């Protein structure tokens, strides 16, 4: 039988400014460890610590631009574009541009504080 998810759980974010994270699927909201699915909304000027997670993170930007720093430089992911951060790679996400960004992130396996390995 399919699992109905009536609403997300608001998760506390890391970074210098408040960011909205609504987890639909994951360790908190659905008790799912295989994958997590969250809707993110971050303000202009938001930046989080760098991380070297043990999971792959697939992100599609819905509005604005997501700035993704990596070991060899950076990528700016605009609305309608996507990025994959592979397990074991160092990345740091931010939204330096006016208007911030809105995006969907899927992590395989699910995001956890124990496996994100933040700086």
Describe, in plain words, how this protein is organized in 3D.
- It is a single chain.
- With 119 residues, this protein is mainly beta.
- It has a single domain, classed as Jelly Rolls (Sandwich), CATH 2.60.120.10.
- It has one helix and nine strands; from the N terminus they run βββββββββα.
- Strands 1, 2, 3, 4, 5, 6, 7, 8 and 9 form a nine-stranded antiparallel beta sheet that branches.
- It is globular, with a radius of gyration of 14 Å.
- The N and C termini lie far apart (41 Å).
- The mean pLDDT is 97.
Integer tally of domains: 1
Strand content: over 45%
What is the number of helices?
1
Helices and strands: which structural class? Answer: mainly beta
- Report the order of strands and helices: EEEEEEEEEH
Task: Write a brief caption for the model.
This protein is 3% helix and 47% strand. The chain has one helix at residues 113-116; strands spanning 9-11, 20-25, 36-42, 46-47, 56-70, 73-78, 82-85, 91-95, 101-108.
């Amino acid at each position: 039988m399919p699992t109905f998810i009536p609403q997300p759980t608001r998760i506390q974010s890391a970074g210098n400014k408040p960011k909205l994270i609504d987890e639909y699927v994951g360790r908190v909201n659905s008790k799912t460890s295989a994958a997590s699915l969250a809707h993110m909304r971050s303000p202009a000027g938001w930046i989080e610590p760098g991380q070297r997670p043990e999971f792959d993170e697939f992100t599609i930007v819905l509005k604005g631009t997501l700035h993704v720093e990596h070991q060899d430089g950076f990528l700016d992911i605009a609305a309608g574009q996507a990025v994959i951060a592979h397990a074991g790679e160092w990345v740091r996400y931010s939204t330096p541009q006016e208007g911030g960004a809105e995006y969907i992130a899927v992590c395989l396996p699910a995001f956890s504080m124990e496996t994100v390995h933040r700086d």
